[in-house]
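Input record (Table S2, row 276):
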Amino acid sequence: MTQPKILAVKNVTVSFDGFTVLDNLNFSMNYGELRFLIGPNGAGKTTFLDIITSKTKPTRGEVIFDKTVNISHLPEHKIVQQGIGRKFQTPAIFSSLTVYENLEAAISFREWSIQLFRWLSPSNRERITETLELVGLQERADVRAGALSHGEKQWLEIGMLLIQKPKLLLLDEPVAGMTRRERNRTGELLQNIAKNYSVLVVEHDMEFVRSFAKTVTVLHTGKVLCEGTMEQIQRDPRVVEVYLGRAHGEARPPKHERVSVPTQRVGRMPMPALAS
Ligand SMILES: Nc1ncnc2c1ncn2[C@@H]1O[C@H](COP(=O)(O)OP(=O)(O)O)[C@@H](O)[C@H]1O
Ligand SMILES: [Mg+2]
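Output record (magnesium ion complex):
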């Protein structure tokens, strides 16, 4: 019996001015899965997330979310209401508010309340406490978000998404610019989150993926090149070729991808310790 899917992307093609970015793509994820999506720059990873969040509409194909909802033609703002939370590379937090207040505000987004500082119900206060613990910021609750480290800001934003109780969490390169210690903390955090949520992580940092991924999908030229465990992926000659090819004649990342955070590994992804 096939398992029910939180997400099923069916025959999705995306073309910009005749250039095909996603090419008849099929992809699915089970409920409760932590999936990593990797691929060289320009493979179509961010466009793929744009399709799931309806930021970009597919030229062809459809996206079925939570078994029944065809989200490919919903307006972008309806996607959050459907239960999809997305974290972009630059954190969207309120710098002048404390960590606690940021989480408070995030509860209001979901509840469509425009009052930021209304009375908090005991259950909401409990949710904030639980979220602070989950993302490891309980000691930082009263610190202004602007004063947090780069890693802490990312964790806060993940907390702000989680507090809205999404059914599916999408993260675009969550460890870009992080220290090794922060990356490890993030990996553990993702594994913890995945106990209760379905999570799709787009990632460039191979070392990180190797340490924390169970199931990996490799995207190349807008198609799924292969899918499997990290071990299977590393042994696949097609993956080796794609990455070794990149390691030699590395092109610059697409313009819109050159973000300001220091991204040590972006654009350079030798596959470490390839199985022989
Ligand atoms: N809005 C757009 N208009 C034209 N081309 C685009 C647009 N968005 C992405 N592309 C192109 O699509 C390809 C895939 O981009 P992207 O999804 O950002 O890849 P990745 O995230 O894997 O690096 C790139 O060649 C990029 O230049
Ligand atoms: Mg990208």
